[in-house]
Amino acid sequence: MKRRQFIARSAVGAVAALGPQWIGSAAAPARKARVVQEPARKIPLDAEADVIVCGAGPAGVAAAIAAARKGAQTILLEVHGCLGGVWTAGALSWILDYQNKAGLMPEILRGLTERADEASPGRGIPPTLTTRRS
User: Fold this and answer.
1) Is the dihedral of CA 106, 107, 109, 114 positive or negative?
2) pLDDT in tens, 98-132
3) How distant is the alpha carbon of residue 58 from its chain centre?
4) Cα 112–Cα 101–Cα 75 angle in degrees, nearest 5
5) Residue 124 contacts by C-beta under 8 Å, 6 or more apart in sequence?
6) Which of 15, 61, 72, 91 has the fewest CB atoms within 10 Å around its CB?
7) DSSP code, position 125
């Protein structure tokens, strides 16, 4: 079997397996919408924002920074309490190729160095994070 035949037959098989409700056939029985009724209640607000970004992974951090730089009052929410999302919180691996990068990376490294110096003067970020590779 050739690749094109395999792909075509796989697609036809997938549509057939999903049934008429997936392809919008008139033969599919109409489902009655299910709803949940919640009682009205007042919820106190701790803060207001123009933009709320949920998740401080690489995309969330970039979205929050972009919104704030455009002047939007921005809140970045992260369940793990650190930037990087599950990669950082789960200690999975280094995800940032930070060396010899322009743009946001030098700003992040500068900010981390300043915070580290405030917390522990003279220690800062290890030279391996700021030294350029040749």
Assistant:
1) positive
2) 777 788 878 888 887 888 877 777 665 555 555 44
3) 6
4) 50
5) 113, 116, 117
6) 91
7) S
Three-state SS string over 43-81 comes to CCCCCCCCEEEECCCHHHHHHHHHHHHCCCCEEEECCCC
- Record the tokens describing residue 84, joined without a space: 């990087």
Rounded to whole angstroms, the Cα distance separating 13 from 15 reads 5
Domain regions of the chain by residue span: 47-94, 96-134
pTM: 0.50
Residues 6+ apart with CB under 8 A from 77: 52, 53, 54, 55, 56
pLDDT tens-digit readout, 11-62: 666 655 555 555 555 555 677 888 989 899 999 999 999 999 999 988 899 8
Length of the chain in residues, anyone?
Answer: 134
